[in-house]
Amino acid sequence: MVVMYGIKNCDTIKKARRWLESQQIACQFHDYRTDGLDAQLMHKFIAELGWEALLNTRGTTWRKLDDARRAEITDADHACALMLEMPAIIKRPLLCAPGKPMLLGFSESTYQHYFNEV
Questions:
Q1: What order do you get walking across the sheet with 27-31 strand by strand?
Q2: Residue 25, Cα to own-chain centre: how many angstroms?
Q3: Which of 114, 111, 113 has its CA nearest to residue 18?
Q4: Which 3-state string (H, E, C) describes the chain?
Q5: Is the pLDDT of residue 8 over 80?
Q6: Terminus of the chain with fewer CB atoms < 10 Å: N or C?
Q7: What is the pLDDT of residues 86-118, one digit of tens each?
Q8: Partners of 94 in the β-ladder
Q9: From CA 55, how far away is CA 61, in angstroms rounded?
Q10: Would you state the pLDDT for residue 118?
Q11: Is the CB of residue 27 less than 8 Å from the CB of residue 37?
């Protein structure tokens, strides 16, 4: 089963979910805010994708952090703690499909390629 991780009110999540529906690809949605996020899952994401890729430094949540807090994020442990505390700072969507690498972000062409690979 394909699992999409993110936050339900995110516009990019909405676009990705609409694309999956249009392609008739069944997907379970995991909302960080309502379904939770634990350290074990976060470490799995970091191990495959890297903390730098997961941390959304272009979004509102990051911009609202003070400079001292931003300066603390220098390694996987600090980034993991921040992402567990503020899941909205994680880039989204994060897609997990059986037998495939995790996919971060959304574009129609990337999803098309991802699901059409043999």
A1: 27-31, 2-6, 94-96, 103-104
A2: 19
A3: 111
A4: CEEEEECCCCHHHHHHHHHHHHCCCCEEEEEHHHHCCCHHHHHHHHHHHCHHHHECCCCHHHHHCCHHHHHHCCCHHHHHHHHHHCHHHECCCEEECCCCCCEECCCHHHHHHHHHCC
A5: yes
A6: C
A7: 999 999 999 999 999 999 999 999 999 999 963
A8: 5, 104
A9: 10
A10: 39
A11: no
Angstrom distances, CA of residue 48 to CA of 28, 68, 79, 108, 117:
20, 28, 15, 22, 19
- pTM here is 0.93
Residue 8's CB is within 10 A of a number of other CB atoms, namely: 14
| CB distance 103 to 112 below 8 Å | no
Q: Which of 114, 111, 90 is nearest to 37 (CA)?
A: 90
Is 10 catalytic? The answer is: yes
Phi/psi region, residue 72 (left: phi>0; alpha: psi -120 to 50; beta: rest), is alpha
**Whats the size of the chain, residue-wise?**
118
Distance CA 32, CA 98 (A): 20
